[in-house]
Amino acid sequence: MRTIRDHPVRFGELAGPLVHGATIFDWQLVSTQELATAVDYGFEDLVADGAIPYAPVGVDTTIHRYPTFGDTVSVAVTPTRVGDSSLELVYDVVDADGEPFSTARMTHVTIAPDGGALPLPDGVRDRLRADHASRDVNPGPADNDTPRENGAAGDDHPTFEDAFRIHSPHIEGSELAYFEEYPRFAAVALESFLADAGLDPAEIAGEKQPFRLRAWHWEFTSTVEFDSTLSVTTDVRSVTDEAIRVDHTFRTDGEIRIEGVTEYGCFDREGDPTTYTDEMVAAFEP
């Protein structure tokens, strides 16, 4: 199902010359709402009943190249697994010629007011299964490992942490943190680490755009509520010319809310993948 059609990239969606990584999350959220409306299981009614609609529990994404000014974006959503209460969707973000910008696979559940997962109504399940298609896609970082405990023996790469108070404008109507805010928090934590290391990305970038989201595998354990303090721990695991690979852990009240594996890549100003310079990755080395 084509949920976003020929959307021109706008200034507010950019970070520098390229689309902000969180914008990819935003397009996925918009597309989920469009699909929900099409199968008569819309966000509005679920929120009115006190439910949390289509909450992500697992996300795998690869960015093949970044959109920039002059590009138009379309998003197609395909149901690939329809369970009793869970729904797996594949999101294809493509350019005007149908060439891919990004591919994502996400598993959603709708959370009832009591905290359990709402079963999909029979008619909704039937409509989704009518649109079901098998897709052989495997987005996200290669060889996804379960994030290890911070400071695992033999690992001398740095670990850093930042914390954020969840207030407006980071919340939605149900008083939970917005889905697309989490990569923003991770980006701010990364920028703070670089600043503490005396590294200004703007000074070393030149024609390159370093420290951009490239691939991620995130698992969502529970929601992040209004007026909580969200800590973001970034545990660097490996550094190559092509990617900085980290474990991400998001906590409130000492409890893990989100954890996963994230790769930050380097891209050129046209959005195509390129390599890091030694100066760019020096702060991440043991």
From TrEMBL:
Domain of life of the native organism: Archaea
SUPFAM superfamilies (UniProt xref): Thioesterase/thiol ester dehydrase-isomerase
Region annotation Disordered: where it falls in the sequence: 132-157
Name this polypeptide is given: Acyl-[acyl-carrier-protein] thioesterase
